[in-house]
Design a protein that fits this description.
single chain; alpha/beta; Nucleotidyltransferase, domain 5; six-stranded mixed sheet; five-stranded mixed sheet; 17% strand; globular; disordered C terminus
């Protein structure tokens, strides 16, 4: 493994991300003996990379983020990430945060178990990239890597809209579409850690071509990338018909998962879903009601994720704490789940902010 290289001049600079529930979060106490345990949390997606420190209670103390280089090769991508991580840790030192106890990572998939080799569909520069070993070597911390949507699902069960739920699907509808499955209070991994790839459930037989090689995948019909390709306009400029169709496609996939796994809740994050807002969720719910007809699947509900812009980093931190042996799932229910946003404002470069419950 090559030593992490310094940021090269052409590498985009990271910026502190602003969010009411993160960067300006109050410290529990000025007494250093009462400093909270913290994890280094890293989120790697096709649009952006983010890193920050998160407490054992799921509070984001601060974060940095940078655009994911669209056409970079593996080493430049690694340089961007390594520099981002260094800046996030330096911010923590400046704030007086404790030294992180572990590193948790959510990264687009697919991947081999534990992130030993990652090949994110929406990051073509990484194919079989040894992400776990690179980050463990860089940080010197116990490191755990999981799919980013699985991490978000874990975070939503820990501190978000699925608290207290033993069976649910967590989803991200953004640049791509991903998911994580929780059944009987356990996050499902599958043979190689890739369980939950709802973005590659077929929702439109013989539909649009998908980057995975199939046709009609949910990701090829309802992601921000797909919407731009199909309509010729970015998702932020989607017409009401496109919003409704996107919600319908997501609802169709959720109905299939609900019937397959005997679960009755879907929590959905991502710039497309939360940016489209109430019309998207209404269309998705209507399609679920039409398609999930067996008695045990009737009444399946889709609702917005509850963590808003903090979700990816809280989820990555949950991966870290679980790696250290913490019980993550099984908290008290969050009343009403996330608030359905009005819609009409698809955030660029990531999950649209919502009020944290």
């Amino acid at each position: 493994m090559p030593d992490p290289a310094p940021m090269v001049p052409t590498t985009p600079a990271s910026t502190p991300a602003t969010a009411p529930a993160s960067g300006d979060a109050p410290r529990p106490d000025d007494d250093p003996t009462n400093d909270p345990d913290v994890a280094l949390a890293i989120d790697i997606g096709g649009t952006k990379m983010a890193a920050g420190l998160v407490t054992r209670d799921g509070v984001v103390l601060g974060r940095r983020q940078v655009a994911t280089p669209a056409t970079a090769g593996p080493e430049l991508l690694w340089q961007v990430l390594a520099a981002l991580v260094a800046e996030a840790r330096a911010d923590g030192v400046e704030r007086g945060d404790p030294v992180p106890m572990a590193c948790g990572v959510g990264c687009g998939g697919p991947m081999t178990r534990g992130g030993a080799a990652v090949s994110p569909v929406n990051i073509p520069g990484w194919r079989g990239f040894a992400l776990h070993d690179h980050l463990a070597g860089l940080t010197g911390l116990p490191t755990a890597v999981d799919n980013d949507a699985k991490a978000l699902a874990l975070g939503e069960g820990w501190r978000g809209a699925a608290q207290g739920e033993a069976d649910y699907v967590g989803m991200v509808v953004s640049t791509g579409v991903g998911g994580g499955l929780v059944t009987d209070g356990r996050l499902l991994d599958g043979a190689d850690g890739n369980a939950g790839h709802i973005g590659h459930v077929i929702v439109e037989p013989d539909g649009h071509a998908c980057a995975c090689g199939a046709r009609g995948c949910l990701e090829a019909e309802a992601s921000g990338t797909a919407i731009a390709r199909i309509t010729g306009r970015p998702a932020a400029e989607a017409t009401p018909d496109v919003v409704e169709r996107t919600g319908t496609m997501v609802g169709r996939a959720v109905a299939s998962v609900a019937v397959l796994l005997d679960l009755r809740l879907a929590v959905v994050a991502g710039s497309v879903a939360l940016g489209f807002g109430a019309p998207f969720f209404a269309a998705a719910q209507a399609e679920i009601d039409r398609r999930a007809r067996l008695d045990y699947a009737r009444g399946t509900v889709i609702r917005p994720a509850g963590l808003g812009a903090d979700g990816p980093l809280v989820g990555a931190a949950a991966v870290a704490w679980a790696h250290l042996g913490d019980q993550i799932l099984g908290g008290d229910p969050m009343p009403g789940g996330g608030e359905v946003p009005a819609g009409g404002a698809v955030a660029e470069g990531g999950i649209a902010p919502t009020a944290r419950q």
